[in-house]
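Researcher: Structure for this, please.
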Amino acid sequence: MRYDISKPSAPAMPALGKGTECIRLLLTQASKDMYEPLVPMFFPVLGAHLSGAEFQYPDLSWKEPTGMMANLVGDSGCNKGQLTNLVEAICRDFRQHDEAELRKLVEWSKQVKTKSANKEKPARPEVAIWFPPSDTTRPAFIQNAMALENLGGRTQYLNMPEVEMADGMCGGHKQVSQMLRNIYDRQRAGALRATADGVTGNPILRANLTLSATPVSARKFYKNDLFNGTFGRMVFSYKARASRDGRIPRQGRYNDEFYRKLDEFLARLDICKGRFIVRPLNKLTDKLAADMASLADLADDDVLWDCSKRALMSAWKAGCIMWALNGQTWTRSMGDVVEWLVYRDLWSKMQLFADLLGKDADPMGDAERRGPKIMLDSLPTTFNEAQLEALRLELGKSKEGTGSQLRKWVYRKFITHNTQTGLYTKTEEYLNRK
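Model: Predicted structure, token format:
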């Protein structure tokens, strides 16, 4: 495990080396304070440009780079708006396509208005919008998904500057959880209406989403969906409040040279069609899965374990996108980014929702935020069972789980057990893990 997510500071982003040139290019248009928060947000919008490709996950299932959802969280005025500028730059081709589609609707609307009441009105043209407005209703979202499926299964992408905008797309806040889970899992989810005025259909939901929120609005939005899978499916990128340095951050100029280079990368996504197995990425994913199990055992934290499974899959999809952006070639630097994305997502979740997940009973504040407690770090190099038992009780965990946790630590080779003295000792492998 390369990163410690129990600390209040975010895991440091690795150097963006060979194979991450597209990410570096996008960051040239962002202020330096937004580099790390923005990187996880790039992949849903880039993934929407990768249509007609499937990748094999280590469990042998085939997955598309769709259902990717990421939420940028930071205090008001922390420069979250830079995401929208970058999204518009990446989606210039989407905007051009959608303008042509919307003109069809305008012409149809004019024809409907000019027809008299006793004449047959023209049928609504089938239009497929790749980059719908943030104010999209549930019927419009379903109707668009139907059109996109009929025209080849393209992914629609939505950017919502305020997290509450997702309520409209999902049909109200009570439907948010069901809709987001269906999008992530690429399920069929439509509607059946009794009249011709309603939208009836059951398309596969191919959509990628990015959202923005303040810590308060994010906690309010997700507080009822922390344990049903919705929370785990969303990638979070949290930017902690910075010091008051009195300097206005500088953004990029979005010049012609930037757009020329960006279009070259987007073209690589457009031509990537077919089924692929990225073996180095899958090997890394298997390793990270074992690391996540070790981390959950160190903290004895089932919520962390559950969240890590989908954080791992989301980072794996990001790895598939980087592979396509790099001319279908894998590099070690891309693997470093994938690993970092997993830990940053988990760190962000724990920083924002620790108390709601049962990790912290105190009101949320900068001083109180903390991640999962690595209990072994709080014990001396050599300790006995009673010491761990006392620590568990102090953290609000059950006394009965002490023996099970010790057996897991021995199995993971974090500690050794001396049967003669009854003492446990941290292994050199654990002490030198960082």
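Researcher: Any notable elements?
Model: The chain has 16 helices and ten strands. The longest strand covers residues 207-213.
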